[in-house]
Model the fold of this input.
Amino acid sequence: MPRAAAIPASERRAHAVRVLLELARTTAPDAISTAAIAERMGVSHGALFRHFPSREALWAEAVSWATGELERRFDACLKPPALAPTPVAASPADASAGLPPSGPLNQVAALMASHAGLLQQHPGLVRMLFAELQRPATSPARETGKAFMQRFRLRLATLMGAAQADGDLAPDLDPHELAALLVATQQGLMLQALVHDGFAGLTDRSRRCVALFLRAGPGMPPAPEVSPAAAPGE
Done:
């Protein structure tokens, strides 16, 4: 009987990452064992360790995949077709309500929505990242996540600076501090999703918060008024 075709190592590693993220949806990351991952994959514990020499190596692989996927999405969402103005009128809750139809601020909104979108798809990532940040010692996963966040803030700060040059944000504000505040807002939404709201509406909540944050710039039109009967959630 012919032997079954061997699964490439890259596919096996990707499968392990998917299983880890699936388990992290409902299980505290510290409670997820490599034995449980191997069982869910349908392989032996030893087979898993042939691809990942330690639990930390698998965690680092998952964070590396996530940061790489976010970078890819960021590059894609900043391409001109993704930023073309939509002919449909924006609703009051839309991320573009009160923002210029194109330009650096809409690019900021696109980046933040893309970031929230991946986390909404993979809430296990949020659990893993918060768990890593609470550790007193560092880890490869933590360092990968920190390096990504530095690049993310720099992207945002660069766009904030461009918005200042266009007159859409006050010129006396520090763009790096603005970027840090926007990231902190997003992280607060992530924590709320973990504790209270769940992840199903994370992208929409992020869009609304980003729009409110960015409307603080000089020259930005006021948000459209919403009658009490049409207010969201009523």
